[in-house]
Amino acid sequence: xxxxxxxxxxxxxxxxxxxxxxxxxxxxxxxxxxxxxxxxxxxxxxxxxxxxxxxxxxxxxxxxxxxxxxxxxxxxxxxxxxxxxxxxxxxxxxxxxxxxxxxxxxxxxxxxxxxxxxxxxxxxxxxxxxxxxxxxxxxxxxxxxxxxxxxxxx
Length: 154
Known about the structure:
alpha+beta; Alpha-D-Glucose-1,6-Bisphosphate, Chain A, domain 4; seven-stranded antiparallel β-sheet; 31% helix; 4 helices; disordered C terminus; 154 residues
């Protein structure tokens, strides 16, 4: 099993950071390999993931939100598909800024499918760091810190 974790500070409130992550459907905008994360059958707890794999093959699975503490923590885990994985994002509210920690664990299957998944998850630490850097850029561009400060003071 592999596991990675990365933490950074963003200049938005924990509520705004959490709201961006809550549906998980925004992840393709910050994760290069993730093609789509879509709600499944109108269920806000269950999503279908499609990820670009090696050799032009897509890898797909369903994941369920297994922990949801608004503005504090969101965790999900795969429920079926090619690869067993789980992730979580924690939001540390520091007033006008928020510490965001993403952790990800995966357990590739054996055989040829395992070889494909291993290539997909090559250098996962770098991928998580890149995703959080993109999240910071995206959320701060969409929500200037000045706006958050004004809203907090109201």
